[in-house]
Amino acid sequence: MSSVTILFATTAALYFLAGTLYLIFLGRGHDSLAKAGTVLLGVSVVSHLAFLAVEWMGGNLPIADIHQALAVLSLLVVLGYLATVTWESRRGAPRLLVLGAFITPVTLLLFLGAGFRRGVALVDEETRSALLPFHVAVNVLGLVAFAIAFGVALAYVLQERQLRKKQLGGLFQRLPPLDVLDSLSFRMVLIGFPLFTIGVISGTVWAVRIDPSAPAIGATQTIGVIAWLMFAAVLLLRVAAGWRGRRAAIGTMLGFVCACAVLLGYVLRDGGTS
Q1: What does the alpha-carbon distance between residue 104 and residue 23 come to, in Å, rounded to a whole number?
Q2: For all residues of the chain together, what is the average pLDDT?
Q3: What is the pLDDT of residue 208?
Q4: Which residues contact 168 (CB under 8 A, 6 or more apart)?
Q5: CA nearest 103: which of 202, 173, 37, 196?
Q6: Is the pLDDT reported for residue 176 higher than 80?
Q7: Residue-level pLDDT at 106
Q8: 141 near 196, Cβ under 8 Å?
Q9: On the CB side of 157, how many CA atoms lie within 13 Å of its CA?
Q10: pTM, rounded to two decimals
Q11: Interacting residues of 118 by C-beta distance below 8 A, sequence separation 6+
Q12: Under 8 Å between Cβ of 182 and 248
């Protein structure tokens, strides 16, 4: 068994254990579980970095294929979560550690996607250009913000449900207040949207440059445009119509699901070209 395989399996297991601790904390409310989950998440990051280092020393660069991009994306999501929790907690936002119960599973799924049908052909030199790494980078950064927004929006929907049913103990006490969740989700979408917009435009330009005779927008790109439209609608309706709360949270979640469908399309497409 290679060192890459061992590090991949170890990192996935650590993310799984950290996510499990966060979920148990969400259900039972023992603060020690959230702290242990955070410590384990830090260990997961170290293992993840070691995995990427071994991969890159072997010549597999971050832009080589969708699997490498997912490996980087999953790491940045968890780092973004930890940075957000630290920053927001210093500003006085309460009970944010519990968001690990929503972010860690997303990180794990993205990381597992990086290991799906590994060994596909790398992007050849003729296809690469300065535009490709730029396109990958802005999309990855945009998706990091959207992933955090998704986790926060999911927490909002659960918290709003608790409030609507007047269940004000247990889970309600562990989740952050609705205004904190709504504001944080909005800021994450504001960060991710311009990056995702640049990614959609640069991807279309790059595709046309590679094969001018091919359609500029294929099936996968169409789903990407739908995701872009959903996030655009969330922002527009928030600003123009005061659209907040549950509807905005659901729109944010649907937009991220569409963005993930784009990633899945690339994984399945590349997975069949070994």
Answers
A1: 10
A2: 85
A3: 67
A4: 162
A5: 37
A6: yes
A7: 95
A8: no
A9: 14
A10: 0.88
A11: 67
A12: yes
Which two structure tokens, joined as six digits, stand for 223? 């789903």
Give the residue among 232, 222, 217, 233 at the shortest CA–CA distance from 258.
222
DSSP class of 60:
-
Q: What is the pLDDT confidence band of residue 121, given thresholds at 50, 70 and 90?
A: very low
pLDDT of residue 90 exceeding 50: yes
Q: Are 51 and 4 in contact (CB under 8 A)?
A: yes
72 — pLDDT class (breaks 50, 70, 90): very high
Q: What is the rounded CA–CA span in Å between residue 85 and residue 142?
A: 18
Rounded-to-integer distance, Cα 118 and Cα 4, Å: 11
Residue with tokens 């490709």: 132
What are phi and psi for residue 170, nearest 5 degrees? 60, -115
Give pairs for 61-65: CB < 8 Å, separation 24+: 62/133, 62/136, 63/123, 63/128, 63/132, 63/133, 63/136, 64/122, 64/123, 65/120, 65/121, 65/122, 65/123, 65/270
Q: Which residue has the tokens 């989740």?
A: 175
Q: Mean of the pLDDT values across residues 138-166?
A: 93
**Cα 173 to Cα 21, 152, 160, distances in angstroms:** 18, 16, 12
Q: How distant, in Å, are the alpha carbons of 1, 64, 132 from that of 56?
A: 18, 10, 18
Handedness of CA 218, 220, 226, 228 (dihedral sign): negative
Cα angle at 161 between 173 and 91, to 5 degrees?
A: 45
Q: Identity (one letter) of the amino acid at 146?
A: F
